[in-house]
Structure formats: structure tokens, C-alpha cells
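Subject: for your reference before the review

Hello V.,

The reviewers asked for a structural picture of the protein, and I figured it would be easier to keep everything in one thread rather than splitting it across files. Below is the amino acid sequence we used in the manuscript, unchanged from the supplementary table.
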Amino acid sequence: MMQVKTQFLLLILVTLILVLVFSFSTVIMAYAHLTKKFGNLSVTVGWSNEPALVGELNNAIVGVNQTSGKTSTGVINALANMNILAKYGGVTKPLDFVPSEQTDGLYNGKMIPTRIGSYSLVMNGTIQGQKINAQIPLDEVQGKQQISFPDSGSSSGVGGGGDATGAVSSSNNVGPQLQGILSQLSNDIDSTKNSVDTMAKNNADTQKSVQDLKNAADRSYMIGMAGIGAGAAGIVIAAVALSRKDILKVSS
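And here is what came back from the structure prediction:
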């Protein structure tokens, strides 16, 4: 009887451990905020509403905490000397962050993401004298179709045949996939355009340097030729003077 009771308690303990592990992993997946360390400061970024959906009002959040040993304290007025931009591909937009009323060191920046894909926060400035210069990615923005029910066009298939419902579902799945591909393509094009612009600027700077060098060489050449001309003229004048002197000596 004691052995059965022990096995039953062990089974309950294992079940509780599995439940806790599953719950913890679920929380980690749902709130995949990213934290970076800068000296004794930890900066965490993410979305307030996850998953972030295209076309829906959301908040890009920034959490700033100061660590001392094992304690962590939210930093008040942390973003006073910070410039923060939301970035998608090569496009950026300044965000205004306001402090949270519930949590010290937490700041919200309202934004409606308009495209599916990867976003990031570009941060420049100082927090309590600590220099911050980083680009921290946010979780990908997703399409609404993944959690929408029923789909906007599925009503025509209700009560019809399985083929009609399947066709509508298939067409609705193609939409977000195509939108995601186009958004990512636009993102890549923006990044490529920035790279091309940078290369063009570097090329223009190189051409300017070459032209400046050529102009300097031309000036040096002209100065050299002028010097040679002056030297030759001096030799001619000296030769004429010597010849006149010899003529005077002979005549006398």
C-alpha cells in the first residue's frame, strides 16, 4: 500500500513539473523580447501586443533597467537623451516614447505596422552617461489571416460544397503568403537601394579625390614648366651678357 502511494505521489510530481515546463516555454515563445547589455544597463525591446499584426495599432516597447548585483531597478526618465527610430528595410521613422504608468523603466511608442516582415529599433544617445548605439530587432509582424476566423471571403462557402470552401480557404492562404513575399521583397529592395546609394557616394568621393590629384599634378607641371622657362631665359640672358662683354673687350 505504501509503495502504491509513493508511486502515485511521484506521478503527481512529474505531472506538475511537465506542466510548469510547458507553461514556461509557452511564455518564452509568446513574449520573445530581446535584451541587450550596456555596462550596468539592460535594454529590452519588443511589441506590447504579440503577435504583432499588420494594420493593427501596437506599441514598440523599450524597457531600461539598472542592475546591481542580483537586483534590477527600472530607470526613470531613461530616454530623455535618446533618439529612437523604427526601421523597416531602408525606411526609418522617429518614434515618441512615453513612460508606462504601471512599470518604472518601461516606455511605449505607438505605431501601426503597415507591412508584414522584420522591423527593428535604431537607438542612439546616452542613458545615465552610458553611450547607446545599437539596432535591436523586433519580432516579425504577421498577417491577420493567421488568427482571423472566419476568413473575410469564407461566407460564400458556408453551406456549399467542400470544394467551394476549399477554394476560398486556398485563395485566402495565397493572399497573406503573397503579401509577405512582396513585403520582404520591398524590404530587400530598400536595403539594396541604400547599399547602391552608399557605393555611388563612395565612387563620387573617389572620383573627386582623383580629380583633385590631377589638378594638383597639373599645377605642379605648370609651376615646373615655368621654372624651366625662367631658368632657360636666365641662361640666354647670361650668354648674351657674356657675349657682349667679350665684344667690348675685343673692340677696346
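For the response letter, the relevant points are probably these. Strands lie at 34-38, 41-47, 58-68, 71-74, 82-88, 91-94, 98-99, 106-111, 120-127, 130-137. The CA atoms of residues 15 and 21 lie 10 Å apart.

Happy to draft the paragraph if you're swamped.

O.
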